[in-house]
Design a protein that fits this description.
This protein has four helices and eight strands; from the N terminus they run E-E-E-H-H-E-E-E-H-E-H-E. It is an alpha/beta fold and 123 residues long. It has one domain. Helix 2 crosses helix 3. The chain is globular, with a radius of gyration of 13 Å.
Length: 123
């Protein structure tokens, strides 16, 4: 049964940019120190645990999901918060999502990863 994801930003003043998961994933997968792969495989020993805990939380609540906070480092997306939740949602069918970033980076995120989709539905 499809489920729509509702989002909330953690900080006022962040720019919100809707991104295409496939485009974003292609660039993010090139950041070995940050990338969380399918099933929660990641660069740290707690990657799977954080991935799994988000899935449990998401299944048990209807509360909005905090947007991931992402910046660019050498042109690659890096997270300051939210990579495990984005990975879990990706693995469960997410095709587009909003991320929070510095307003100075919003145009580049939009140009490189943007999408016209303005909803997040898990299939």
């Amino acid at each position: 049964m499809p489920r729509e994801v509702h989002w909330v930003a953690r900080h006022d003043g962040d720019a919100v940019v809707w991104v295409d998961m496939a485009k974003f994933e292609q660039a993010w997968s090139g950041v070995a120190a940050q990338y969380v792969g399918k099933g929660g495989r990641g660069p740290t020993s707690d990657s799977f645990s954080k991935y799994r805990k988000f899935g449990q939380w998401f299944a048990a609540t209807a509360r909005p999901v905090e947007m991931a906070e992402v910046f660019l480092n050498g042109g690659f997306p890096e997270f300051s918060n939210g990579r495990h939740r984005v990975a879990w949602l990706r693995d469960h069918g997410l095709r587009a999502f909003p991320l929070a970033t510095n307003p100075d980076l919003a145009a580049e995120f939009t140009e490189r990863f943007g999408t016209a989709i303005r909803s997040s539905v898990l299939l």
